[in-house]
Amino acid sequence: xxxxxxxxxxxxxxxxxxxxxxxxxxxxxxxxxxxxxxxxxxxxxxxxxxxxxxxxxxxxxxxxxxxxxxxxxxxxxxxxxxxxxxxxxxxxxxxxxxxxxxxxxxxxxxxxxxxxxx
Length: 118
Known about the structure:
Layout: H1 4-25, H2 39-53, H3 55-62, H4 67-70, H5 81-84, H6 87-117
Helix pairs in contact: 3-6
């Protein structure tokens, strides 16, 4: 059962969200992001998080061709070994990693353009 304090917290949260939505909907679409004082801080955090996560696609692109892949736990399972060590599977995993790197580069360019235009 929900306690009365929990109901008040949910109500306060809903009220804050509704007030925020009303405030944002009254502004033009172009000015919603960069007139907000917290937007640069949020974008900076988002950008740093994206840089932090950019290591994952790099690992995904390189690991299938390394000894880490060959000696992994799943590659030691006899039915999976031929499948995981095939060039097709390695190429697919690497392609996904390269695709993620490309998408990250596109996002980075869009971020830079947004910062220049603001």
